[in-house]
Amino acid sequence: QVQLVESGGGLVQAGGSLRLSCAASGSILSINAMGWYRRAPGKQRELVAVIRGSTNYADSVKGRFTISRDNAKNTVYLQMNSLKPEDTAVYYCYADLLRIYVPGAYDYWGQGTQVTVSS
User: Fold this and answer.
1) How far apart are CA 11 and CA 107, in angstroms?
2) Regarding beta strands 75-80 and 65-70, do their DSSP bridges make them parallel or antiparallel, or are they unpaired?
3) How far apart are CA 113 and CA 18, in angstroms?
4) Per-10-residue mean pLDDT for the chain, 119 residues long?
């Protein structure tokens, strides 16, 4: 099995910062990519950032959010600065990975962590 455990969400005032973490564990052979999605109330899920060697960001977070990865710990981080009320959402971590003895790469998801930015 594979587990992704997120941490670091919470309540912050506009202009503040939060750092999300997501650690993957289990029968992992290799990880191709890790990233973050978010879902705001009444909106569709949105890709926030992904790291696959290089990094990609949603236009709405460029210059404010930074994604990084610790390969030794199978952990991905999302540093969120200059937070805005519109960043309020549940943030989900995902990993595109290969498991030991399982052919093919699949996406695995965390349980989600709430980020609330007050104005």
Assistant:
1) 28
2) antiparallel
3) 12
4) 95 98 96 97 95 95 98 97 98 95 92 97
